[in-house]
């Protein structure tokens, strides 16, 4: 479809970005689950439960904002489509994997 659009003179950046964001969605979901596990898998201490919920929700909004900013740069053509979609997903995945692997359960 993108080849047809480009041959007709239209820009297909949005379509390419959307297609690759759909392909990268499982990686995003896995990284969000790992980020939530960092805050959720703690021994139940009553004074930290609310704080852990707040951290989990804030990290979810942060991940979404981080991903959206990169996708906007990809849609505008300032970044390569592959870099704009796949780099935040990979950074989030490996960052959350690193945080989860170094998490000390007390």
Explain what you see.
The chain has 106 residues and is mainly alpha-helical. It has helices at 2-7, 13-23, 25-40, 49-76, 81-101. Helix 2 packs parallel to helix 5. The mean pLDDT is 86.
Q: How would you classify the helix and strand content by structural class?
A: mainly alpha
The number of distinct β-strands equals 0
pLDDT averaged over residues: 86
User: Cα distance, first to last residue?
Assistant: 53 Å
Q: What is the strand content?
A: under 5%
Uncertain residue ranges: none
Radius of gyration: 18 Å
**Tally of individual helices:** 5
Task: Report helical residue fraction.
Answer: over 70%
Shape verdict: elongated
What order do the helices and strands follow?
Answer: HHHHH
What is the makeup of the main sheet?
A: none
Précis, in short:
77% of the residues lie in helices and 0% in strands. By secondary structure, it is mainly α. Helix 2 packs antiparallel against helix 4 (49-76) and helix 2 (13-23) runs parallel beside helix 5 (81-101).
Note the topology.
Layout: H1 2-7, H2 13-23, H3 25-40, H4 49-76, H5 81-101
Helix pairs in contact: 2-4, 2-5, 3-4, 3-5, 4-5
Summarize this structure as a short list of keywords or feature phrases.
elongated; mainly alpha; 0% strand; 106 residues
């Amino acid at each position: 479809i993108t080849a047809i659009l480009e041959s007709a003179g239209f820009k297909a950046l949005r379509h390419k970005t959307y297609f690759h964001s759909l392909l990268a969605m499982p990686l995003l979901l896995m990284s969000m689950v790992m980020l939530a596990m960092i805050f959720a898998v703690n021994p139940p201490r009553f004074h930290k439960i609310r704080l852990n919920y707040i951290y989990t929700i804030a990290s979810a909004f942060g991940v979404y904002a981080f991903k959206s900013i990169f996708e906007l740069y990809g849609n505008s053509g300032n970044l390569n489509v592959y870099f704009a979609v796949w780099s935040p997903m990979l950074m989030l995945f490996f960052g959350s994997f690193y945080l989860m692997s170094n998490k000390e359960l007390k």
